[in-house]
Design goal:
The chain is mainly alpha-helical. It has 2 domains: 1-55, no CATH class; 57-210, no CATH class. 81% of the residues lie in helices and 0% in strands. It contains 11 helices and no strands. It has helices at 5-14, 20-39, 41-53, 58-79, 87-112, 115-143, 145-148, 155-163, 169-179, 181-206, 212-220. It starts with a helix and ends with a helix.
């Protein structure tokens, strides 16, 4: 009759101290009286996890997600620095990004019952993710420059370097990446906003299935 322990523990960490008892009690009551009898233990556990995640700030999710992707990029480069990013890998990467951002937006819109909050959450999580991924990419470029300069997907960059008057490849590459930072982060925010639009729309369509108890809990906050 109890929700997953780790989910309950995480809930205590992500909500404000003054709200912990009220929110935890309301979620537990709804879990036991409405969700568990109707959905069964497995789906009820997923529901509870979704409720907990919806309380996590989109900024925190974006920073953590971007850091994780950046570390993965560093590790994969260390293992095989000359491996090019195939079309399949890039499509998978984009799908994971948009899917995660859309989920964050969906949960934000559903918890606050606001389409606007869903879009804002998408923009924030998208910009934060790309910012952290970009920072990790700077580290990657500088640590593995001697190897990755020979990658096939670096041909255009290396051609621009040889055509320029730059004497240092490291300085040239860092300047190129720094120049594109604003554009890349902006694209992340825009893509996050689009994910927010989709997540907010789906959230709005599914809000009719929310129980009155959930609505009263959200309104009380």
């Amino acid at each position: 009759m109890n929700p997953p322990r780790w989910a309950e523990f995480l809930l205590q960490l992500v909500v404000r101290a003054r709200d912990r008892e009220t929110i935890s009690g309301d979620l537990l009551e709804e879990y036991r009286e409405s969700v568990l009898p109707a959905e069964g233990p497995f789906r009820a556990g997923l529901w509870y996890w979704g409720q907990v995640v919806s309380f996590v700030s989109p900024l925190i999710v974006g920073l953590a997600f971007g850091t994780a992707l950046g570390v993965w990029n560093l590790v994969s480069t260390a293992v095989d620095p000359l491996s090019d990013d195939s079309a399949g890998i890039m499509l998978t990467f984009v799908a994971v990004l948009l899917g995660t951002w859309g989920l964050v937006a969906f949960l934000a819109g559903r918890r606050k019952r606001s389409f606007r909050d869903a879009v804002v959450a998408g923009v924030i999580v998208g910009a934060a993710t790309i910012t952290m991924f970009n920072l990790a990419n700077y580290v990657r470029v500088n640590v593995f420059l001697d190897s990755i300069q020979y990658r096939d997907d670096w041909r255009n960059l290396m051609a621009r370097f040889h055509e320029s008057d730059a004497r240092s490849l490291r300085a040239f590459v860092n300047r190129e990446y720094l120049t594109g930072t604003f554009v890349v982060t902006s694209l992340g925010a825009v893509a996050g906003g689009v994910s927010g639009l989709i997540g907010g729309a789906v959230s709005g369509l599914t809000q009719t299935s929310s129980t009155p108890k959930a609505h009263d809990r959200d309104a009380s906050r």
